[in-house]
Amino acid sequence: MTDTPIQTIEALDSLLDEERTALVSGDLEALDALMSRKSDLIEALRLEAMDLPDEIEPLQLKLRRNRELFEEALAGLRSVADRLQELREVEEGGGTYDGTGQRHALETRARGRLEKRA
């Protein structure tokens, strides 16, 4: 039995609420699972529900909201990755730039070496 356009709209509406919850809580595994279902529902609506603009408008708002949340989550992940890279560079000795813009590595002492001073 095929869903009616209204049933598809209701299913997508519910799924978008689930997606928002996953985005806000940082549940990336749930997002992955929701993505293919969302794609299928959107495709079904594209084919079935063109005559229901009033019913689709709230979904468009939720889709936009979730996309913005997703973009913010990606920006946060990029920020963390950048910070971790900076920390790795510091552990490896870091570096400086000379007057010509050439990077020069700084040498650090080996990790785990303990120097005892009197």
Automatic annotation (TrEMBL):
In terms of SUPFAM superfamilies, this protein maps to: FlgN-like
The biased composition feature labelled Basic and acidic residues covers 104-118
**Database matches in InterPro entries:** FlgN-like_sf
Q: Where is this region: Disordered?
A: 91-118
Query: A single GO BP annotation from the record?
Result: bacterial-type flagellum assembly
Which positions carry the signal peptide feature in this UniProt record? none
Q: What is this protein called?
A: FlgN protein
